[in-house]
Amino acid sequence: MAEILALVVDDSRMARYVLSKMLKEQGINVDTVQSAEEALGYLCTTIPSMIFMDHTMPGMDGFQAIRAIKNDPKTASVPIMMYTSKEGEVYMNQALALGAVDVLPKQLKPMQLIQVLERQQLLPHQSFNTKHTLTSSKPVDFTAPIITARDVGQDLEEVAKEAERSIENKSFTNEVKQILDEHKEILATQSDEHSQTLLRKLDQKVDAVSDTLAAFVKETRENSGIFHKLSDTTKLFFLAINIVVIIILGTTTTQQSTQIKQLTSNNQILNEALSIQDAKAESTQTTLEGELKSNLYKNQLHLDQWVANLQWALNRKNQFAWDEKPFNRKLAGLIQSTADKLDTAGFKGTISLTSHLGLFCLAVNESGDPELPAELQTLADCNLNDMNEQQAELLGLEKTVQFANFLAAFERNYGSDLQVSLHSKGLSAPAKDYPEKSIETSASTWNSVAEQNQRIVIEFMPLQLE
Question: Where residue 130 sits, what CATH number does that domain have?
Fold first, then answer.
């Protein structure tokens, strides 16, 4: 059974997590990126079995990404599923016309996902033979074969992963804070609407009681003249009726008054509950803000430690040969690999490269060209290149054509976020002291020290924010 790899492209961290979880439950491996631009970069080195593409994202949207993927022969055959909150036949037809094989809703259920995967023959138990990973042959002229520092390799990858995990805490804390603010606003809105409803009911009941009393007073005044003309028996009869009416109205008024008091009490309880909820929300927000500051501080510490470890590892073995220019093709490959790691970790600043020259004792061969002396020769059999300080510094700034091309491409790729600066110390700062300068000193011993002093020192200088 062939392993299946899915690429999820979505700017929402929560959406990436939910869809990845559902895919992994079906035995499918998942990689995620947060933008269409990152997806195109990912596809330069890895060809997944399927792609789940969000439509609305900052920068390049999902439709533009599908068009770019389908225009590349290497990725044109990869099935793409659009998933979005948009609805309508026009949108679906547009996505299918661009090359999507299916359109899924953002509120995707596990069973819906299984049906789509089954329909596209993408489940692990179905026959699906797709090559997942394709090592890209990047046409980079200046690096030829890119050389990475093997001594650095695995240790740095582990530190980079730890830094990335720490950095993710920052975006998660921001999302929780946003959700809390939205919840607080909704609660306040709902509570206010409920209070207004109770007050409207209270006003209606008060108006009803007032209208009843006003009608009774008006009727009494209109009938006062007739009342005087009636017999005593009739007067007593009407008086009894009026007393009964007054008692009934009094009872009704008492009931209305009780209801008014109950509504007032309920409104007060609601206001108190709202005040308590507001206090809890403010307390929770204060706690989250404190955790956010703590996480930001921890993230910065992780990044600083990772950068320090990377710098130490790169400077363990960075010598160049006596007949090589300081800034050469091999160094360009190493710095390119390092820059990719720094950019992924979120580092912004300058990569400072400082050359140090070794003072070699060189012999001259039959053709008149300089070379290292034989094993048993001494300083008497070779010549030390005693150049002055200015000459040594100029020689320390020499670079190959490949390195010059690398610098131009580097500036285009990273802009002001990540820069490279070149410096030369000439012969002024050897890492190791030379042996005694005597005609009896072994030339091999002398040149061994010179080889250690002929080196590039790499330093990472973070961007200082005002």
Answer: 3.40.50.2300
